[in-house]
Amino acid sequence: MVSDVLTPGEARQLGRLERHDTLEARNRRLAEGDAITMRVRRSDTARLAEFRIPYRKWMRVLDALNWVADNQAPDLAYRWFCGSKMCGTCAVRMNGREVLACWEAVEPDMTIEPLRNLPIIRDLMVDRGPFERKVEQLEPWLERSEAYSGFPEPLSHKQMKNASKALDCIGCMCCYSACPVIGLGDLTDFAGPAPLVQLGQTALDPRNDATKVAWSLALTGIFNCVSCYKCEEVCPASIPIVSQVIEPLKAKTAALVPDMAKHSNALRAVVAVRGYVDPSALVLKVHGLKALLNLRRALRLLFRGKINLLRTFLRRKTPASAAGARYLGREDVP
Amino acid sequence: MRVQSTDVVVVGGGAAGCYAALSLHRHGVKSVILCKGLVGKSGASIFAGNLVLAGRALGNTEEHARNTAEFLIKYHNQFLIDQRWARACSQWIENVYYPELEEAGLYLRRDDKGQVVTSPGKIRSVAANLQGNSGVPFMDLRRKQVIKAGIPRLEESAVTALLRRLDGSVCGVFALDIVSGEYQIVLARAVILATGYSDRLHARSTGTREMSGDGIAMAWRAGATLVNLEMQWWHTNDIANPPAWQRMQVYPNPMLGSEKSARMVNSVGEEFFNQQEDDPLAYGPYTVQLKALAKQVHAGKARYDGGYYAGFDHCDAREVETFTSYGKTFRQLGLRFPEQLVEAAVTAHYRQGGIDVDTKTMRSSVPGLYVAGGLAGHSNGLIGLATYDGKVVAEGVMEDLPQLALGVLREADVESEARRLESLLRARRDGVPVSQVKVAIRQMMWDKVGVEKDAASLQSALADIEAIRLDLLPRMSVVRAEKSVNYEWLDAIDAVNMVDTCQLIILSSLERKESRGPFMRRDFPMQDNSRWLAANLMIRTDNGYRFELRPYDLPFFQPDFAVKDNLEVAW
C-alpha cells in the first residue's frame, strides 16, 4: 500500500511500492522447497540459460547462483566475496533492475544479467576497470590545507552529514549501471554516480582543501547529471545519492568551479527572473555572441515559432521579476 | 607467463598486508601486493564492526586500559599470547594508530556537538562512520592510500606457491591471474604472507569466497613451523538463513551510545546470553557466548546449526540504529525491527593459530618468509592488531633486507608448478565435480571437527581427509578446460590447499589434550594450565612432523587456577 504521505525514504522507493515490489512481498511469496526459475544471460550463447532451483528459507540471488554453480553449471562466471553487503562485488541485474546478489531476495521467476555500462568479462562478471580508473583520476583522498591537530580533531557529525552518507558506499556499481547518462557513453564527460559518491566521501568533508576539491570536481562533468534518481532507487546501501551527494557536489562545483555551472546558473537566473524558460535568453546567456554561429538553427526556430525574440528582448520589469533578481542577489537581470 | 622483480612481495590485501606495503613505501622499499580478491574489498578486514579503544586513548581511564588488556589476553586468546607484544601493540594503537587513521581522513563517528561517540562500559570502542560497518570505510581508505602511493597490485591473482632459493629460503611467488588465466611470477628479497584469519573450511564459515587455507598450506610446504592451529574461534550468533548470510552477525558487543547489547534466546524462549548482564568485561564475548550455547545444546534447547534466536527486542529502534547498522539485516528479511528476533547459528570464525612467528620481527621459521595479521598465529581477531602486525613486519623485513639477496628464478620449480596447476584443469569422463569435493570437505569438518570434538571424531576426520586426498582429489574434473575466468579450476586449486590445511588442523586438534576457551574436547573437558598453557608447535621434519610445547611467559596477567572444567571458566 502506498500511503498518502510519503516519508523521504519511501519517496525513493515509490516506483517499487507502486509495483508491489517490496521486500516483504519478495521475502514471503515463496515456501521452502518451491521451485524457482532463474534465467541467466551467458557469454557463450545468445539464448538465456534456464535453471530450476529449490527455494531455501530467505534465499538470496547469490544463494541461487551458488546453487547453480554447485549443481548445474560449474563454469558459470560471477564475482562475489563476502556475501554480506560489504565487498560490493556481486551486483547483477535481476528482472531489469540492479541488485546486490547477496542482499536481494530471489523472485519466483527471474532473469539475471550482468551490469550495464561496463565491459563484460564473462557471463555475469564485468570489468571493474573503467569505474576504478575514473575513481583514481578523481583522486578522492583528503588533502589538508591546515596541519592535522591531533586525535581527536575538532569535527562534528553535522559537518560530516553528507560525507558520512557517501561513506556507506561499497563500490558495487549498481548506480553506475542504472545511470542513463553513463549509458550515453562518450557523448558526455560525466563521471557517473558511483565515482561521484566516492569523491563525495572526501570532497564533502570539511577537512579537505578547497583547491584540491575544485581540481577534482573539474574532472567530473557533474552538470550532465539529470537528477533522474535512478541511482538512488537502486542503491543497496540506501545512500541518497542525488539529494545528499550529487546536489551538494553540484553546489560546491558552482562555488569553486563557476565555469562548469554556467548553464545551470543561467537557467536558474532565467527562471527566477522570468518565471519560465526562455530558450533564447538561456542560449544567449550561456553562449553569448557565439550563439550567432548557429544562425540557421535560430532562424528555423524563429520561423516555427519556437522562440520569440521580441519577448526575450522587450521584457518588462514586474514585481515578480524584481523579486527574482533580489533572490539571485543581483541587479543585472537577464 | 609474466615475470617481475621487486624488493618485497606482500600476499594479501587486508589490514595487515596494506599497512605493511604502506610502511615499506614510506621507507622507500618497493613492494607488490598480490591479492586473491580485491585489495581492501575481499577477506576478513571489511568485517570489522568497530575499533576497540586501547590504552589511555580518548579519555580511557587506567582501569579501561587494564580491562582492555585483560580482555585481549583472557577472552580473545585464553592466555595463548605474547603479553609483551600485546602491551607494545596497545601503546602503538593509543599513540600512532588512531592519529594516523584520522589524519588520513578516517571519520570516527561524532555526535552533533563534535564528541567522538563511544560505547560505554568497562571497555570502550569507537566506529568508523557506523558501528557494524567500520571495516568498509577503513579498508576503503587503505585501498586508496595504496593507490595514492602507487604501490603496484595484482588483484584477483591467486598465489599458488612460494618460490624458494636452493638453500630453501623464500624468494618470490607463483600466482595465477584469475581473470586472464596468465601465470604471474614475482621475485623478491622477502615475502610477507598476510592472507588472513579466516578460511572457508567448515560448512558454516565467516571465511569469504576466496579463502581456502592457502597461506597455511603454502607456508607448511615451504617448511614453516605452525602454532595452535586447533584454536578456532566461533561466532555464536550469525544469521542461520539464508546460506550467503552465514557470515552476518547479530553483533553481541556493546552498542555505541547505548547501555544495551543484543540478547540471545533458546528454543523455548528463555534468554541465555546478554553480554551486559552476563559478563561486562567480555567486550567481544564470543567464547562466553559459545559456552553459554554449549550448555543450551546439552540441555536440548538449541542446536549448533540453529534453533535459537538473537536480536534487540529489548531495545527501541532509534537506540539501536542511531550509530549502528544492526537493523539492516532484520529489515531486509522482512522482519519487524526490533520486535522480532532472528534465528541464529554457529559459524567457524577466526583461527587464533597459524604460522609461528617471532613477534618482534614477524619472521617465520623459514628465511625470507614473514607473516603478518591473522595468519601469524599469535593473537586473535581485531583489525588494530592486524594493522600493528603490518608495522612490525615492515620493520622486521627492513632490518633483514641488506642480508637478503634478490630472488632468483628457478625454471624447474616454475615449470613443475605450472604442470601441477594444469593437471587440475582436466575434464575427466568419470570424474568428480570440483564443487562436490569442496562441499564434502566442509561438511566433514563441520560434523567431525566442529565446536565439540573428541579423539574418535578427529581420528575419523583424519581418515576422511586421507580418503578425500587419495580418492577424490585425483579425480576432480572441470567442465571447461580454459584458463581464463575459470572459477572451477580455481576451486580445484583451492581444494588441494583445503585438504592439506584441514589435515594439519585435525592433527593439531588431536595433540592438544585439554579444552581451552572455544576449543572444546569431549574427552578432555578440563582446561589444564599446568600442562597446556603453551604454544602447540607443529614442526616439519624430514619424514613428516613432530609436535613441541613452548610455554608462554605470563608477565602481566595469570590464570588463577591450574585445572578447571572449561565450561565453568568464564573465558
Q: In a few lines, what is going on in this structure?
A:
The complex is a heterodimer of chains A (334) and B (571). Helices cover 40% and strands 9% of the residues of chain A. With 334 residues, chain A is of the alpha+beta class.
Can you tell me about this structure?
The complex is a heterodimer of chains A (334) and B (571). With 334 residues, chain A is α+β, with helices and mostly antiparallel strands. Chain A folds into 3 domains: 31-126, Roll (Ubiquitin-like (UB roll)), CATH 3.10.20; 129-143 and 159-256, Alpha-helical ferredoxin (Fumarate Reductase Iron-sulfur Protein, Chain B, domain 2), CATH 1.10.1060; 261-328, no CATH class. Chain A has 16 helices and 7 strands. Chain A has helices at residues 8-12, 14-18, 23-28, 61-71, 129-137, 161-166, 174-178, 193-203, 210-217, 230-234, 241-256, 262-274, 279-287, 295-303, 309-313, 319-328, and strands spanning 35-40, 49-54, 91-94, 97-100, 109-113, 120-122, 125-126. In chain A, the strands form 2 sheets. Chain A has a 5-stranded mixed beta sheet. In chain A, a hairpin with a 2-residue loop joins strand 3 (91-94) and strand 4. In chain A, helix 8 (193-203) crosses helix 11, helix 12 (262-274) packs antiparallel against helix 13 and helix 12 packs antiparallel against helix 16. The longest helix of chain A is centred in the C-terminal third of the chain and has 16 residues, at 241-256. In chain A, 40% of the residues are buried. The mean pLDDT of chain A is 90. Chain B is of the alpha/beta class. Among the domains of chain B are: 236-348, Alpha-Beta Complex (Flavocytochrome C3, Chain A, domain 1), CATH 3.90.700; 420-568, Methane Monooxygenase Hydroxylase, Chain G, domain 1 (Up-down Bundle). Chain B contains 15 helices and 26 strands. In chain B, the strands form 8 sheets. A 5-stranded parallel beta sheet of chain B has the order 6-3-2-10-18, covered by helices on one side. A 5-stranded antiparallel beta sheet of chain B has the order 12-16-15-13-14. In chain B, a hairpin with a 5-residue loop joins strand 13 (263-265) and strand 14 (271-274). In chain B, helix 1 crosses helix 10, helix 5 (214-221) crosses helix 14 and helix 13 packs antiparallel against helix 14 (487-511). The N and C termini of chain B lie far apart (50 Å). At the A-B interface, helix 3 and helix 4 of A face helix 3, helix 4, helix 9, helix 12 and helix 14 of B.
